[in-house]
Design brief:
By secondary structure, the protein is of the alpha/beta class. The chain is 28% helix and 18% strand. The strands form 2 sheets. It has a 3-stranded parallel β-sheet with strand order 1-2-3, with helices on one face.
Length: 121
């Protein structure tokens, strides 16, 4: 088994070359910065390699977290620095890339502004 956890799309082919025949490559990197990953399909098929992705959390983990949130066991307000409509997803990504946000909540069908913008005061 090879665990790739760098989130560098150039490393995945190296992981596929390192794993033994019949082995598994686990892609545990986060998002790969939106870049495509190059895979040589014939090598995967010939060597019977399994490629698995992992987010690090299970469905039950998310359900437990939602349950704790719903009864007020912990607060997320301190880490949610922005709320924006989904239509502004590109702007949200730019804010994250500039490291000007901790967490951005994207809302469907609602008009929200940045917490620190003049329109929100």
């Amino acid at each position: 088994m090879v665990i790739e956890a760098t989130a560098d799309s150039d490393v995945v082919p190296q992981a596929l070359h390192m794993v033994r025949q019949g082995g598994t490559v686990i892609m545990a990197g986060s998002g790969y910065k939106g870049k495509p990953v190059t895979v040589e399909p014939w090598n995967v098929v010939r060597d019977e390699i399994t490629i698995r992705g992992t987010e690090g959390f299970t469905r039950n983990d998310y359900l437990n977290a939602l349950g704790l949130l719903s009864v007020g066991k912990f607060r997320v307000d301190p880490i949610v620095t922005h709320e924006m409509p989904l239509t502004q997803i590109n702007e949200a990504c730019e804010i994250v890339e500039r490291k000007q946000a901790i967490k951005i909540v994207l809302r469907l069908g609602e008009r929200h502004v940045l917490k620190d913008s003049p329109a929100s005061q």
